[in-house]
Amino acid sequence: AISLAIQGFLSNLAGGLILLMAKPFSVGDWIEINNVVGVVQKTDILFTRILTFENKVVSFPNGTMSTAQISNYTMEKNRRFVFSFDVAADSNIDLVRKTIVDAVKKNDFYNKHFEPVVVVTDLSGYAISLSLRILVNNDDYWNFKFTLLENIKKDFDAAGIHFAPVFQAFLEQMKNQ
Predict the structure, then answer these.
(1) 8 A C-beta contact, residue 159 and residue 99
(2) Whether the predicted pLDDT of 133 surpasses 60
(3) How many Å apart are CA 49 and CA 62, to the nearest integer?
(4) CB contact burial 82-111 (16+ within 10 A = b; e otherwise)
(5) Lowest mean per-residue pLDDT among 16-25, 93-102, 127-136, 157-166
(6) Mean pLDDT of 116-122
(7) Looking at residue 67, what is its pLDDT?
(8) What is the pLDDT of residue 9?
(9) Closest Cα to residue 152, out of 115, 106, 100?
(10) pLDDT tens across 58-91, in order?
């Protein structure tokens, strides 16, 4: 029992040293590890403490941290924003694309250094699948997203663009089975 306790302690100690040298994140960074997403509050030699967006504090042993896959969302200045959606199959693709690009460009959090790209990703009998891709300043990511989604809905309504009916897609799938 004592040797297992020492083994765990040494694993966390070694993990802490690895984290201090490799620096995959810093205090204040927004990271994801083992399906836990939050902001790093504190890293010491044995544990790393993360504050989640639900206001929970999760402590990870550094032995786990040193071997796990860590996604650091704040390490880079910009972050890719991807918004995928389906519009009705009879929609005018050029009008949909223009409406989306216009909504991006009038967004207060739009980074003018990066042009929005809207691509068609799939076609079916009931929908046209599109994807918006753009880089956004990391600090503005959530404000950009929430503002953009609301404005796209309003602009689609004004332009007479309709999202694809989900129930119709379900019925189509059921017919083909």
Answers:
(1) yes
(2) yes
(3) 10
(4) ebebbbeeebeeeebbebbbebbeebebbb
(5) 16-25
(6) 96
(7) 78
(8) 66
(9) 100
(10) 999 888 887 788 899 888 899 999 999 999 999 9
Supply the DSSP string of the chain, one letter for each residue. Answer: -HHHHHHHHHHHHHHHHHHHHH-S--TT-EEEETTEEEEEEEE-SSEEEEEETTS-EEEEEHHHHHHS-EEESSSSSEEEEEEEEEEETTS-HHHHHHHHHHHHHT-TT--TTS--EEEEEEE-SSEEEEEEEEEEEGGGHHHHHHHHHHHHHHHHHHHT--BPPHHHHHHHHHHT-
- Interacting residues of 51 by C-beta distance below 8 A, sequence separation 6+: 38, 39, 41, 57
Provide CB contacts within 8 A for 13, sequence distance 6+. 45, 46, 62
The average confidence (pLDDT) of the chain is 87
Residue 40 and residue 48 in contact, taking contact as beta carbons nearer than 8 Å: yes
Q: What is the per-residue pLDDT across 21-44, written as a single tens digit (0 to 9) for each?
A: 778 888 999 999 999 999 999 988
Pairing mode, strands 36-43 and 47-52: antiparallel
Structure tokens at 41: 């509050």
Q: Record the tokens describing residue 86, joined without a space.
A: 């389906």
Instruction: Using alpha carbons only, give the angle 55, 57, 60 rounded to the nearest 5 degrees.
Output: 145
Q: Of 146, 97, 152, 93, which is closest to residue 123 (Cα–Cα)?
A: 93
